[in-house]
């Protein structure tokens, strides 16, 4: 099944941005070698599906792998798919490298359609009206085998974007917005 992208984002524009984006964040560019092979493993807590995939190799993002990631991290409530920003994937990859824990990331939420975001906002004051989840720039995760507080501390030390800590729900929020913590 080929993913369909929202907001008329063309495949060429998406792939072109994927090739440029890793260098738009100095923190990421300085922390990950261009020649690194980058792979991630996910378990989606709402769909019970898993994905283990190499998304970057030989100095380039792999378009077919990004398509699979976009589908996997799409809005499970509506079925909508939207491109996940490659810098976000690189941040998750780097977070795993810095923790030294090579287990699957558990996905609580990634892309959210505006419809889903509005529905969640009505249930919780903690959901932002202009959430970066709706732009493919945020993910809510935990890492099997690592205390969520340690994952939060590592993410904060990376200074690559926003980090939220949800102790009672046992996950962190990671986004590509300005550096901030809550």
Question: Would you kindly provide a written description of the structure presented here, covering whatever features stand out?
Answer:
It is globular and about 45 Å long. The protein has one domain. The model is unreliable at 1-10 and 19-25 (pLDDT under 50). The protein is built from six helices and eight strands, in the order ααβββααβαβαβββ. β2 and β3 form a beta hairpin. The chain is 34% helix and 22% strand. It has an eight-stranded mixed beta sheet with strand order 3-2-1-4-5-7-6-8. With 182 residues, it is of the alpha+beta class. The protein has helices at 11-20, 26-31, 63-72, 86-99, 114-123, 148-158, and strands at 38-44, 50-57, 60-61, 105-109, 138-143, 162-166, 171-175, 180-181.
């Amino acid at each position: 099944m080929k993913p369909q992208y929202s907001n008329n984002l063309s495949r060429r524009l998406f792939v072109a941005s994927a090739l440029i984006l890793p260098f738009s964040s100095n923190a990421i560019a300085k922390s990950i070698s261009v020649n690194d092979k980058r792979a991630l493993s996910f378990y989606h807590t709402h769909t019970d599906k898993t994905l283990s995939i190499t998304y970057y190799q030989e100095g380039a993002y792999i378009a077919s792998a990004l398509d699979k990631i976009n589908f996997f991290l799409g809005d499970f409530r509506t079925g909508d798919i939207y491109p996940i920003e490659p810098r976000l994937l690189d941040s998750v990859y780097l977070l795993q490298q810095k923790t030294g824990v090579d287990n699957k990331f558990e996905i609580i939420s990634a892309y959210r359609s505006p419809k889903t975001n509005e529905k969640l906002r009505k249930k919780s004051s903690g959901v932002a009206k202009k959430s970066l989840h709706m732009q493919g720039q945020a993910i809510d995760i935990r890492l099997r085998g690592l205390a969520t507080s340690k994952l939060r501390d590592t993410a904060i030390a990376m200074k690559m974007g926003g980090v939220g800590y949800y102790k009672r729900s046992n996950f962190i929020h990671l986004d590509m917005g300005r550096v901030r913590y809550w």
